[in-house]
Amino acid sequence: MTQTRSQLNKLVMRRVWYVFLLSLFVNRGTVAGVTLGVSLGALFELIYVRAIVSNLLHTEVGEVPSYVLQSLQDSFNNGELLQLFLICLVFVSLSYLLTVLNQAFLNGRGSLRSV
């Protein structure tokens, strides 16, 4: 009796953990956060961030948008489409994550599960 009860308890707890882990991956906020993290990590592996920040700091304030546009055009012309894709993915996932967070806190529940 006790052995079957402990086996049943293990089976139930295993299913509880399966449902919990599945709920993490189904949650929109988690998916957006993981996508943002992975795309930022891949982007930082492809580009040299220190050089970009240095170039931005040496650019006059009024010329920053034209500098960014020129950099994006140069990367497109040089065939660096993976970098452009990752930049777009970062902006899309960041905006989606901010939208999900905004909806969660506007509902007054303060939880991502309520969205």
Descriptive report:
82% of the residues lie in helices and 0% in strands. It is built from five helices and no strands. By secondary structure, the chain is mainly alpha-helical. Helix 2 runs antiparallel to helix 5.
Helix content: over 70%
| Beta-strand percent range | under 5%
Number of helices: 5
Structural class: mainly alpha
Largest sheet: none
Mean pLDDT: 83
Give the tally of β-strands. 0
Order of helices and strands: HHHHH
| N-C termini distance | 43 Å
Bulk shape: elongated
Give the low-pLDDT segments: none
| Estimated radius of gyration | 22 Å
Number of domains: 1
List keywords for this structure.
115 residues; mainly alpha; 0% strand
Topology:
Layout: H1 2-26, H2 28-46, H3 49-58, H4 64-77, H5 81-106
Helix pairs in contact: 2-5
Quick summary:
With 115 residues, the chain is mainly alpha-helical. The protein has one domain (28-114). Helix content is 82%, strand content 0%.
